[in-house]
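Structure request: Cob(I)alamin adenosyltransferase, Anaerobium acetethylicum.
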Amino acid sequence: MRGLIHIYTGEGKGKSTAAVGLSIRCAGRGKKVLYTQFLKDNSSGELAVLSRTENIRVLPCPESYGFYWKMTDSQKEEATKTYSSLLEAAAHEAVAGEYRMLVLDEIIAAYNCNLIDRAYLLEFLKNRPEGLEVVLTGRNPSEELLELADYVSEIRKIKHPYDRGIGARDGIEK
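Returned structure:
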């Protein structure tokens, strides 16, 4: 079966949730899934359940740097090394481990902020194993990512509690 590229994008809540749902669907059919996150701190609730789910392996990011706009230049340099290494490790493991699906949660933000090796990601997507499904999440995907994608789903915000000052809540947004 040919693997395709999915993008979940938009200003609305639910991009990562959609990727989690697709991961569970894939694993539920006995297929191996590799799931990793960029620009997050490994504390979101979905990682806890995904790491206990048969056929899903969570590859954690070894370091969290917080929001991009709050990083110093030296933190951006360090984050670029960390996230580029994470991308390479995920790509290598997805290929070597014969996974059916690779989820790169918030990779689009890392790509847009130049916190990964952009050329590496593009080459990997173009030359991925035929059976590997790849899921990318994040806002404002570049034209080159959109061109490579087979699915592009936009999640549009109509209303969100954050607009009224309600922060992220355990089990709902994190």
